[in-house]
From TrEMBL:
Descriptive protein name: Uroporphyrinogen III synthase
GO BP terms: uroporphyrinogen III biosynthetic process
Pfam families: HEM4
GO molecular function annotation: uroporphyrinogen-III synthase activity
Domain Tetrapyrrole biosynthesis uroporphyrinogen III synthase: 15-245
CDD domains cross-referenced by the UniProt entry: HemD
Amino acid sequence: MKNKRVAICATRRADDIAKKVLELGFEPFIEDVVIMEKLPENVMAENIKKALDQEPDVFYFTTGEGTQLIFQKAKELNLDKRLKVLMESGKVFVRGYKARGVLLSEGFKNFIYVESTHDLIEKLKDANLSNLRVFIQMYGEKLPDLEAFLLSKGASVLEVWVYKYQVNLTKMDAFIEKLMNGFYSAVLFTSAYQVDYVFKRAEENSKRSELIKALGQLPVIAMGHTTAERLFKYGVLKVLYPEKERLIYALDILERVLSDG
């Protein structure tokens, strides 16, 4: 396992992932090609207030950090009680164990847990959403599939932004070059939007086919099926991913394939 280099393409918890990769006996490299940037305090406040003024019927929390920021800002605005009253009278969905943990720490237990946005859509496909207002804690990028689904069901979409993503093009170009030059023994992608940004940049530099070829020659691990599907879409056909979207399961796959190799 010596000298097995692992690229970690993660925006959140990258240091935690790197530590765990190191504990497995591999050499981690954090490829922070996309970073999370909080919106200005006044913009966050306005986004939350505007959404709550419309009295949402359904809530969807997508990330631990984003959920925490919403509750924190709601408290500062003295809107936390109103937020909880609206949540208690509506339907609440939460994606991922970190966001779930924030809701529990806030004393809120009446929610439905989903593994992914795709899972949420599946759970709602037979529901009557006509004229309902859906509060979505956005996590850096638009959610076109979810938005299109909700609008097709007659619902209103309330996008609540608290942070967005910024791309470091210099680091992105260097990451793509390392992939193509065989520097890495494996690569771990934790979310689909990272895949989009990497391939968008490769396309801009006329290196898409080279990148696909390079990724086809090493273990590519996705955190879950949504990220894997995005890789499939771009032509990366050999992708390993756990059935449940959990870091620990993705790392189990990483350990197995690199130990076998």
